[in-house]
Hints:
The chain is mainly beta and 149 residues long. It is built from no helices and eight strands. The strands form two sheets. A five-stranded antiparallel beta sheet has the order 1-2-7-5-4, with no helix packed on it. Strands 6-3-8 form a three-stranded antiparallel beta sheet, with no helix packed on it.
Amino acid sequence: MRLAVPALLVAVLTCPFTASAVVCHVRATPVAFGTYSPGDPSPLDVTGEIEVRCQGTAGSFATTLSPGSGGTFAQRQMVSGAYVLAYNLFVDAARTLVWGDGTGGSQRAGGLSRPGRLVFNFPVYGRVFPRQGVGTGVYTDDILVTVEF
Length: 149
């Protein structure tokens, strides 16, 4: 008795594949408001900076900021014990466009990296709102900077 064994056909397909990456480093200078006076009728405005250094292939990117401890972009919060101080961070000097992640009316800042090394500097416009009845103390909030490709 003989068994028929079908021939095994093997096909090898090749396709070129290219891997690429963009490497970025982020540096942020603090948005340090200094001394706040609760009775002052004017807002307390300061400026910080985020620097994004990229090296690699071309691609667009967006820089986003987290809402911080307050959990919302509508009004961020710095905290000192039981006291809360309302503030926000903006992409524009007029302080009308809240810097966030693109949700809830917030804006993102971005750019287009090109092959080679490229540096982007983004000013961060901060504002503590006037006439807030808060106690003395050191108020802080932690904001996460994210660069998305």
